[in-house]
Amino acid sequence: MTKNDAASNQGWDVALYDQSFGFIAEFGAGLVELLAPSPGERIVDLGCGIGQLTAQIAEMGCDVIGIDADQEMIALARQKHPDIRFICATGEDFTIDTPADAVFSNAALHWMKRPEPVIASVARALRPGGRFVAEMGAHRNVMTITEALYQALAEQSVAREAVEFPWYFPRTGAYVSLLEAGGFDVTHLHYFARPTPLDNCPNGLSDWIRMFGQNFLAAAPPGNEAQIMARAEELCRARLCPDGRWLTDYTRLRFRADRFDG
Ligand code: BEZ
Fold first, then answer.
1. Beta carbon of 142 within 6 Å of any ligand 1 atom
2. How far is the CA of 137 from the centre of ligand 1 (A)?
3. 148-187 per-position pLDDT tens digit
4. Whole domain around residue 174: which residue ranges?
5. What CATH number does the domain containing 104 carry?
6. 25, 4, 196, 48: CA torsion to nearest 10
């Protein structure tokens, strides 16, 4: 996971991320299966965050490089996994010295708001025939939460336009077209809903908003951030926490795309 690849005001609370958002890497386990890494392969983990999945891939015998745009995430990744190489760079501008067999990315591409240069960087990083295996938030992702935040802000006379929407959640067809235009054949694609529990967030949806929704809170009248979070929670509760357990309304796009050979 990464941030600040494009125009986002988001600032990470890395300690909260480490403590309460381990599920992001846990859900990435299935994506590692789709990557199917073989020992000795050279793999880039784009938007690696604090490096949990990077380490998992390294343990499978691969030569992995973790890349993330956030300095603090990279610092913690290096501290936790001193034997792995981590680079601080954005999805748009990262480069590696030797072409990779695969670029892997879990829950990060939706923070990179300009997909064309990201896809171009990925293509440049891969050897011909190399694979791009990724999962990202897709069309309608976290819509219940974002609409609740917009409503909570509107009730305090803040217009939608005051919020710089921090994410890129593409429709399937649009993203396939971008991959194809960028030199890839899409060989696997799955769009699906994945209600995602917030079991390790003691403050429920408010923790999620504090972690990821800084652009919405930045638009709140000063001092009213807690009120905005509480109102958004109230608006979401019937749909996302009907039985006392918060489940965020995630939708995912999971794909494998192979770089044209030649
Ligand atoms: C996601 O993984 O879908 C996501 C995470 C944080 C903010 C928005 C989306």
1. yes
2. 6
3. 999 999 999 999 999 999 999 999 999 999 999 999 999 9
4. 5-140+167-198+249-259
5. 3.40.50.150
6. -10
Read off the tokens for 188.
């696997």
User: How many domains in the chain?
Assistant: 1
Task: Judge whether 181 lies within some domain.
Answer: yes
172: left (phi over 0), alpha (psi -120 to 50) or beta: alpha
Q: Is the pLDDT of residue 2 over 50?
A: no
Q: 17 CB under 6 A from ligand 1?
A: no
Identify whether 159 is part of a domain.
no
Amino acid (one-letter) located at 27: F
* Atom 9 of ligand 1, residue of closest alpha carbon: 137
Q: How far is the CA of 255 from the centre of ligand 1 (A)?
A: 17
